[in-house]
Structure of Phospholipid/glycerol acyltransferase domain-containing protein:
Amino acid sequence: MADSHRCSSVAAELEGTLLISGSLFPYFLLVALEAGGPLRAATLLALYPLAVLLGAAAAAADLPLLAMTFLSTAGLPASDVSAVARATLPKFFLSDLRASAFRSMATAGESERLVVVTRLPRLLAEPFVKEYLGPDVLVAGSELRLLAGRFTGTLASPSPASFLQVCKQRRLVVSPSPASAALPRSEYRRPLVFHDGRLVFRPEPLACLAALLWVPLGVVLSVTRLLLGFLPHGAGLLLAAATGFRIRAAGLPSSASRSTAARRGTLFACNHQTLMDPVILSTVLRRPVTAVTYSLSGFSEAIAPIRTVRLTRDRRTDAEIMRRELVARGGDLVVCPEGTTCREPYLLRFSPLFAEVAGDQQAVTPTAVRAGGALFHGSTVRGYKWLDSVFFLMNPAPWYEIRILKPVATAVGGGGGGAAASREVANGVQRVIGDELGFECTGLTRKDKYRMIAGHDGVDARSAPAAAS
């Protein structure tokens, strides 16, 4: 702690104090993978042990840090690294945030200036610190050198030791046990709703090596599981289970309700977990469904075992397309009113278009969906969305849970009050699904997600969402 005439500064180390782990490798690996690509990440993983061995010598103690910095950032645009620091790293920082240290910082007096000292480049730690520790907390870390908008991989200031040297008072605090409890989600300074990146697990060196060795078998499994989707539903379910793909369903309609649906299609409104939501719903229903999409890649359309219909983003035209599917064709229709996927236990705002389409003659069937895997996320914003399903099915034991809930009457009519009534129905369906899953309903939208993670509103060809609202 440094005293002055005006105020005092309280400095805390990030690694090993605020964070339970003192390892920097996971964060550099995430930058290398998400901003640089798999080859750069594999290079970092391969050379890291050598850097650690050489760094064991007293004269080269900083070598692992310098090597990781160079391998993960050299030649990368500053905007890409900044995006990873903003959209990917905070998730992993939060899961490792020590509850006792966070609470101690929260009790600091108003006259005390809080400083977080880190061995990471300041750029990587600052978004997390500002968002989840406090906007007024200063970050003391090394600076990355820039050349023509790209990082050189070298540090302008090797360490933040100069800050600690000016402290008038110093206290040596024995680090708590590594088993200290992480901060529970309920105490986060702000909710973690949006984040990006492919990796589910914390990428420590051995975990990364295991995942790398798994990839060849994972690719074979992914292709096999994709092909199983074209088999008759009963056989596909059995064979998918044999590969470790677990699918559970509840609330399946009876035969009588299916015969009713044959005269007029059923409108399913789902929360959105991955691109496979409509496919899994069709599988558990054991009958064809149609999914409406805004912008699906050609590859995703080619591997989809169900019919897909593109929408235009013109509200009136899209409503007519959906009505035609439900009434003229008499088919079951699946919509995801959130308009994009959400990984965390939150529901984004439901667009009321599906309720307007249903009108007062069509009930809506809320469908609660949960999905997950141990290695890879099946959704992305800044990455290649056409690989979303492939990555999800590369997990050793991916799982899906589908709960078909009781139909909700719409009765919104087509008059002047229809829009308000449609919004009320959409909010009601959101609450029903949220209550079933234990997810919190929010007013956040697809645009909020894409602006936060990617810096645009999610309508370009690479990052447009895959499900209609």
The chain is about 40% helix and 15% strand. Confidence is low (pLDDT under 50) at residues 1-6, 461-469.
